């Protein structure tokens, strides 16, 4: 089973249900729209800076976002090790 990138969770569990565009989120948390787009498309990790901004915006712990990223990173590395 392919690991789920935190960006997919951001898109499917937060942005879509709340009717928030990627552009609006980016502007509201003062980051570039490109950063949010790259996260949503799995091309960029959620950094500590982004986790802090998302946690304030969605009233969640920054650990929530960092844990999602860490779990994803662990699963990706496990898959790589198993293929060796």
From TrEMBL:
Signal peptide: none annotated. Residues 11-65 form the HTH cro/C1-type domain. GO terms for molecular function: DNA binding. Transmembrane segments: none annotated. The keyword Transport does not apply. InterPro entries: Cro/C1-type_HTH, Lambda_DNA-bd_dom_sf, Toxin_antidote_HigA. Keywords: DNA-binding. The keyword DNA-binding applies. Pfam families: HTH_3. This is Addiction module antidote protein, HigA family. It comes from Candidatus Aquicultor secundus.
